[in-house]
Amino acid sequence: MQDPGGKAPWRTLDATLAFHSQLLRGAHAMWEERRIALGRLPHRGDFSAREFMRFAGNISLIDVEREPLRFRFRLIGSTVTDRLSRDHTGQYVDTAYQPTYYEAAIAGYLYCLSDKLSIRSFGYMAPAGKDFLAFESVDLPLSADGAQVSMIVKCSDFPTDQTW
C-alpha cells in the first residue's frame, strides 16, 4: 500500500519469511522450534521471560478480541516507542491508526488468525509520520487453547541502511 501522500510503500507482507534482520530470524526460529516441538500453536506461557530478553525492546504484544474482532496493543517495547516517538500501549489498533492505514496495519494479524502461521512485513512508518523510517517485523501467533489465535507477538527491527 502506498502512503496516501504518494510516498514510499507503507507495509508489504511476505509469507516466505525472507528476513533481512538477524533479530527477527532469531525470534521466528524460537517460535517455530516451540510450535514444532509442541505440535500446536504455542501459548505465551510456553516461553520464559528469559527467552524473550534479547528481543525485549523490540517486542509488542497484541491481544486478539472476538465478537467483534478487535486487536489491542497490550505492550509496545521501548525500542519501538522510541523509534516511532509514540506509545499506543493499551489502545485498540482501530483507534491508534488512521482509517487510511488501518487495513494494512491489521493484514498481518488477519493472516495469523486465518493461517495460524507467522508472517513477515516490511516497509516505511508513514502512519507515524516517518515515511523515511524503514521497518521489518514478524507477527508470531500464540494461542491460549492451542488452536485459536488469542495473542500475537510482533518483533520489529528498524534497519538504518535498508531500501525496500
Provide a descriptive summary of the structure in words.
With about 160 residues, the chain is α+β, with helices and mostly antiparallel strands. About 30% of the residues lie in helices and about 30% in strands. The chain is built from five helices and six strands, in the order βααββαααβββ. It has helices spanning about 20-40, 50, 80-85, 95, 100-115; strands spanning about 10-15, 60-65, 70-75, 120-125, 130-145, 150-155. A six-stranded antiparallel beta sheet has the order 1-4-5-6-2-3, sandwiched between helices. Strand 4 (about 120-125) and strand 5 (about 130-145) form a beta hairpin. The longest helix is centred in the first third of the chain and has 17 residues, at about 20-40. The protein starts with 10 loop residues before the first strand and ends in a 7-residue tail after the last strand.
Quickly describe the structure:
By secondary structure, the chain is an alpha+beta fold. It has a 6-stranded antiparallel sheet, with helices on both faces.
Note the main attributes of this structure.
164 residues, alpha+beta, 6-stranded antiparallel β-sheet, 5 helices, globular
Taking all Cα atoms into account, the compactness measure Rg is 15 Å
Q: What's the helical proportion of residues?
A: 25-40%
Overall body shape = globular
Q: Treating each run of at least 4 consecutive H or I residues as one helix, how many helices?
A: 5
Can you summarize the main beta sheet? 6 strands, antiparallel
- Judged by helices, strands and strand pairing, the structural class is alpha+beta
E-strand count: 6
Average pLDDT across residues? 92
- Termini gap: 13 Å
* Biggest sheet, spatial arrangement of strands: 1-4-5-6-2-3
* Share in β-strands: 25-35%
